[in-house]
């Protein structure tokens, strides 16, 4: 399939054919491809739970409000964001970049690049991603407000804005996964209709984890009509400046 065909094939499937099976390893391969999606500052503050176990699937049916897209699915993927992994991911990025620079950059430029990455992942990222009951977000906003009359400043700095940043990146991962699934003829449906507290309990996730999206997986039931796809006229959403 080329990209156009993949995009046409991907539909939000509400009823799967229970007689047609998907291969768990191929679904895992699509999740490996989804890792290639971009994330803000390459922080990759997401993880996914590929649910194939019957008992957990049943617990998730209830948590997903018995939507047929979930009850008829063969497998589920729960995409989770982890604001609590900031330090871990910043260290991983820095460790990688240190080696990357030493192996791939000219000797005379190495020190400069190493310093830049060090500043970014040891100072800027902890400042931008730090959380403490909303107070660090307020501090960030306050500091940038002082500078804002004199120069452009980033304004999405509250801790709630931080959640948006994490879920935005995670949504790109989920979309990449769904397109990879389409490419091999597998179907999906993205969902946010779930009880996040129950989902977290079923997966034994900590309080700090946030459920971003659940994607159900299977092969569509051809007997259930999908109908035409509705999209707003392009002119209403496209502005060339
Ligand atoms: C973030 C998000 C949440 C969604 N949640 C649900 C859901 O809980 N249940 C559902 O049946 N469909 C859900 N959908 C699917 C949309 O309704 C669907 O993508 C939309 O109607 C467009 O149809 P298409 O995907 O076939 O083009 C969701 C889609 C997105 C992107």
Automatic annotation (TrEMBL):
InterPro entries associated with the record: Nitroreductase, Nitroreductase-like
Protein name: Nitroreductase family protein
Coiled-coil ranges per UniProt: none
Keyword Oxidoreductase: yes
Pfam families per UniProt: Nitroreductase
Entry keyword set: Oxidoreductase
Family of this protein: Belongs to the nitroreductase family.
UniProt cross-references to Gene3D superfamilies, sorted A to Z: NADH Oxidase
GO MF term list: oxidoreductase activity
Phylogenetic classification of the source organism: Bacteria, Pseudomonadati, Bacteroidota, Bacteroidia, Bacteroidales
Domain Nitroreductase: 8-218
Superkingdom of origin: Bacteria
């Amino acid at each position: 399939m080329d990209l156009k065909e993949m995009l046409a094939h991907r539909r939000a499937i509400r009823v799967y054919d229970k007689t047609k099976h998907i291969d768990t390893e191929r679904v895992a391969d699509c999740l490996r491809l989804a890792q290639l999606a971009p994330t803000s500052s390459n922080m990759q503050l997401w993880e996914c739970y590929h649910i194939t176990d019957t008992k957990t699937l049943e617990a998730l049916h209830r948590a997903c409000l018995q939507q047929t897209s979930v009850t008829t699915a063969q497998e589920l993927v729960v995409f989770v964001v982890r604001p609590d992994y900031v330090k871990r991911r910043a260290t991983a990025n820095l460790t990688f970049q240190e080696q990357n620079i030493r192996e791939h950059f000219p000797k005379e430029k190495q020190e400069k690049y190493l310093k830049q990455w060090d500043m970014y992942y040891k100072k800027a990222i902890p400042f931008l991603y730090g959380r403490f009951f909303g107070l660090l977000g307020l501090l960030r906003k306050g500091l940038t407000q002082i500078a804002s009359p004199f120069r452009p400043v980033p304004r999405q700095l509250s801790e709630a804005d931080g959640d948006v940043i994490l879920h935005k990146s995670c949504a790109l991962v989920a979309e990449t996964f769904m397109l990879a699934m389409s490419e091999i003829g597998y179907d999906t449906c993205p969902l946010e209709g779930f009880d996040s507290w129950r989902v977290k309990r079923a997966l034994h996730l900590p309080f700090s984890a946030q459920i971003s999206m659940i994607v159900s997986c299977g092969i569509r039931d051809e007997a259930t009509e999908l109908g035409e796809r509705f999209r707003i006229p392009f002119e209403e959403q496209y502005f060339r400046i």
